Amino acid sequence: MTHARRFAVIGAGIAGLSCARALQDAGATVTVFERDLFPGGRAATLIDDAGPYDHGAQYFTADDDRFVAAVQRWQSEGIAQRWLGEIVAFEPGAILDKTASAERFVGVPGMRRLGVYLARGLDVRYASPIARVRHSPAGWYLHADRQIEGIGPFDDVLVAVPSEPAAALLDGLTALAEAARTVSWDPCWAVTVAAAHDSHAPFEGAFINDDPILGWAALDSAKPKRGRVDGVAERWVLHARPQWSRRYFKMDEREVSRWLVRSFAARLRRGLHPLQARALMWTYATPVNPLPQPFLWDAEQRLGMAGDWCGGPRIEGAYLSGLGLAEAALQ
Ligand SMILES: Cc1cc2nc3c(=O)[nH]c(=O)nc-3n(C[C@H](O)[C@H](O)[C@H](O)COP(=O)(O)OP(=O)(O)OC[C@H]3O[C@@H](n4cnc5c(N)ncnc54)[C@H](O)[C@@H]3O)c2cc1C
Fold first, then answer.
1. Structure pTM?
2. Could you tell which of 21, 42, 111, 125 is best to mutate to test the pocket of ligand 1, judged by most ligand atoms within 8 Å of the CB?
3. For labelling alongside 183, which of 50, 64, 198, 266 has CA 20 to 30 A away?
4. Do 227 and 262 have their domain in common?
């Protein structure tokens, strides 16, 4: 090979971006293809006229030395901050203080900032959903929906999307697709709520472990550097429990909002009277049985897969999975 290795990375979530950065830093030529208009994937921020909401990942923790070092960098560059909000867990018959149970960080001014930061200086093609990967003697080609002419050639294709679509993309091209297919996922209904009045909730984040509908609530407007919008006192993000989200996967969005707001108001023992509430479905929210290996790499075909469904179902796992795949592919 006389040219710099040409890598295609599919997916600009945390795994795809950490992978692409490591490849580019090592001198490779990297093109990232992202279905959405923004980077970050599930480390997401939705912005509407009431302000920003982290409707996907709520916060992150750091344990592994490499991720701790990355988070320290992000803090010093103003990308992330500690979230010092009071966190509780509602258990049957008890409310536990969880504030000190972990060191929690958030992107500032929203979780999407992590992806935006990781994507800087990378060639990311947004609004580019990849539907098919094809081999030719010149190398790998990627095809968008109904696109006859492929984009390529690439020497390596690294897929950093949830396991189900990842397996579909690499089906028949590598045995890795079979491993990916063994992972199943929980969906999650997320509801964003803007309220005109303070709820006086005695917490800023709550694991709700004693409710059939609600699993988590966070006072998003109290996270660091979220800013304020006139007339909006509070912005909340509510997450439904996985079982409920699965059962009511097809429920009308307004109906989902009503159920979650009602459950949360009952928890607070006061009416919430939202100015607006909006429900969004995360089809692939959490891998139920992530693979034990941190990434998948087929050195013969030069195809790989990364994501939180290999590395561990969190932002840290996704970051390390992407990094590990880049290191393996560069060898
Ligand atoms: C509701 C919810 C709450 C969470 N809470 C937390 C938390 O508190 N703490 C924590 O650490 N983690 C949390 N997570 C998990 C965390 O968000 C994920 O582990 C992490 O963001 C996964 O990153 P990833 O890069 O592996 O995948 P993703 O973020 O899913 O990235 C995949 C990317 O690929 C793109 N894509 C998909 N298909 C295609 C295609 N065909 N072509 C091109 N692009 C494509 C997607 O648009 C996306 O940008 C939560 C997730 C959800 C949904």
1. 0.97
2. 42
3. 64
4. yes
